[in-house]
Amino acid sequence: MRYVRYLCIAVFAVALVSVALANRGVVTLQVLPQEVAGWFAVNPSVQLPLFLVILGSIVAGLLVGFVWEWIREYGERAEKARLARETRKLEREIARLKGEKHQGKDEVLALLDEAS
Q1: Looking at the structure, do residues 60 and 79 belong to the same domain, yes or no?
Q2: Burial tier of 18 (Cβ tally within 10 Å: 0-12, 13-18, 19+)
Q3: pTM score above 0.85
Q4: Both 103 and 54 in a single domain?
Q5: TM segments (predicted)?
Q6: Furthest-apart CA pair in the chain: how many Å?
């Protein structure tokens, strides 16, 4: 299984390198459209190789997806934590009730009663 993972990583690395080599041309990346840039009296633009724009877009999309999923699963994590707290509370109550049940009994009989 480890070798399959290494093979997948190698194939992915070769694909990324081939995309980078095929898209080395420099492009101008403008942050704002010309019409909007005029309102703010700024025209932020930067010249980057196209593969950086492509790979940066992929990374940004993955980050947005991870954050979105983390926020979406908040309710499930909160429910699991609530159930864990309730389980611990009930386990403490069971231990307390068993202690009260066997109070004043012979210890050997109490252990035999707990085992069954």
Answers
A1: no
A2: exposed
A3: no
A4: no
A5: 46-68
A6: 89
